[in-house]
Design a protein that fits this description.
α1 runs antiparallel to α2, α1 packs parallel to α3 and α3 runs antiparallel to α4. The protein is globular, with a radius of gyration of 17 Å. The chain has a five-stranded antiparallel beta sheet with strand order 1-2-3-4-5. With 183 residues, it is of the alpha+beta class. It has five helices and five strands, in the order ααααβββββα.
């Protein structure tokens, strides 16, 4: 990251933290939750990782309601489960603001927000064991699975972290297998 990029990211982070400190800045958004997520480090392994993290934080603030709080909470759980996970911002188009993506040796999951739901789509969800039955959407496909979280719903945090760890392990195993084939 260049010094100019680092200053920009630092300025964005400070602005967001200041906004989170003002209780009336975003009605309905729990500023204490937002501050704790903002204060947590967001590991990134790519040059654009800080920009991706800033975009995700911006999206959380723009939502300004239960969806922002939910996205902030699952973001924290993802980093708790796999501290070296990378944040990416993908699929930005004129009519779409973009999508948060968490990855480790490939995509782990996306974090999309809709009017009635926050959807976490796991790229390799069909191949991951889900003993607590967190996957409740996109169950018919051969590859992906999703978790739809509605207002007021809580995710089983321990089971969710286990899904993240299993997704990381699946990606790492697939990468190792691809590397072995190349040799």
């Amino acid at each position: 990251m260049t010094p100019d990029q680092a200053r920009f990211v630092s300025g964005v982070r400070e602005s967001i933290l200041e906004a989170a400190a003002e209780p009336d800045a975003r009605p309905g958004l729990c500023s204490s939750n937002l501050r704790s997520v903002m204060a947590a480090p967001t590991p990134t392994g790519r040059p654009d990782g800080e920009t991706a993290s800033a975009n995700i934080t911006k999206r959380i603030q723009e939502l300004g309601d239960w969806r922002g709080e939910t996205l902030a909470r699952v973001r924290q759980l993802i980093h708790d489960a796999a501290p070296d996970i990378q944040e990416e911002w993908k699929w930005e188009k004129p009519k779409s603001p973009g999508t948060p993506v968490w990855s480790h040796d490939g995509g782990i999951c996306t974090g999309e927000s809709y009017k009635q739901v926050v959807k976490l789509t796991f790229f390799r969800g069909a191949s991951i064991k889900d003993p607590k039955k967190l996957f409740n959407s996109s169950l018919e496909g051969n590859t992906r699975r999703a978790i739809d979280l509605r207002e007021g719903e809580a995710v089983d945090e321990a089971a969710f972290k286990q899904l993240i760890r299993a997704a990381v392990a699946a990606n790492s195993a697939a990468r190792a297998q691809r590397s072995a084939k190349k040799k």
